[in-house]
Design a protein that fits this description.
By secondary structure, the protein is an all-alpha fold. The chain has one domain (4-264). Helix content is 80%, strand content 2%. It has helices at 8-27, 38-55, 58-62, 64-71, 79-96, 102-105, 111-121, 126-175, 180-235, 239-247, 252-264; strands at 4-6, 73-75. A two-stranded antiparallel sheet has the order 1-2. α2 (38-55) packs parallel to α9 and α5 runs parallel beside α9.
């Protein structure tokens, strides 16, 4: 697996959304302080966050710092290196047998691949290997689903509770109908709460949920390639056939890059 590093593009994207909103406000000649309201923030931002905590098991809420670390980082995966590693294992196992891979297990950093190789070295039935590793993938997807679910729910409840903030502002305005300034302030709170909720849900929270979903799909693809490679090794497939099987999971452009690297090597 590749090295995890900070992803500057998520900061660029968030900055574009936030700065665009501030510029739009300034273009209307309204001071930014007009849009600063603690009551609106509590109702439209903090309340949906609390509702999201209720929605998922607390073990996933406790894992939020780690989820944010994953969100704000990227992992460069060298698919060519991964596939060539599996092809090398295929070549070695055909020459020396599956037991010859036992010495390579300790050098495999990826736990999923290490476990799969250990299973075939131990002589586990191919169908059982497939079943065990697919179960591992399903459990990984379930964990990712709960991580994503937190942001889904936060984004879902935001606009609805923003409307509740709007009602609070309107009620405050109507309760001081004789005071024109109080009415104006109450109406302003109503719209500010809605603005907070809609903007944060759609410009920040829901894009993060989508990002987590795409990261999950990437992890599933990587582990699918690993599993297919291990099963091909166990079946004793020709290494060339193994390479063809694995590159089939990749888009054409990436396949060409892998092929060019192979030819260059």
């Amino acid at each position: 697996m590749g090295e995890r590093k900070f992803d500057i593009y998520i900061i660029i994207g968030l900055s574009i959304s936030i700065v665009s909103m501030f510029i739009a406000i300034l273009l209307h000649g309204v001071p930014l302080t007009t849009y600063a309201d603690l009551a609106a923030f509590l109702i439209a931002v903090v309340s949906p966050f609390g509702a999201a905590i209720v929605s998922v098991p607390f073990e996933y809420v406790k894992n939020l710092p780690n989820i944010l670390r994953i969100l704000f980082s990227t992992e460069d995966i060298d698919y060519a290196e991964l596939i060539e590693t599996l092809v090398t294992f295929a070549e070695k196992s055909r020459r020396e047998g599956l037991l010859s891979l036992e010495n390579d297990i300790q050098d495999i950093k990826e736990p999923f691949l290490r476990k799969a190789i250990q299973l075939i070295v131990d002589g586990t039935d191919p169908e059982m290997v497939k079943r065990i590793m697919i179960t591992e993938m399903e459990q990984m997807e379930l964990r990712h689903l709960f991580n994503k679910k937190f942001f889904d729910e936060w984004g879902y409840y935001g606009p609805a509770l923003g409307m509740a903030g709007a009602l609070v502002g309107l009620i405050a305005a109507l309760s001081h109908a004789e005071d024109r300034a109080a009415v104006t302030h109450g109406v302003a709170i109503a719209f500010i709460a809605t603005l907070y909720a809609v903007f944060i849900s759609n410009a920040i929270v829901l894009p993060m949920a989508t990002r987590l979903d795409l990261k999950n799909q990437k992890d599933v693809l990587i582990k699918t390639i690993m599993l297919e490679g291990v099963l091909s090794i166990q079946a004793g497939d020709n290494p060339t056939l193994t390479r063809e099987k694995l590159t089939a999971f990749l888009p054409p452009k990436l396949r060409e890059q892998i092929l060019s690297k192979k030819e260059g090597g």
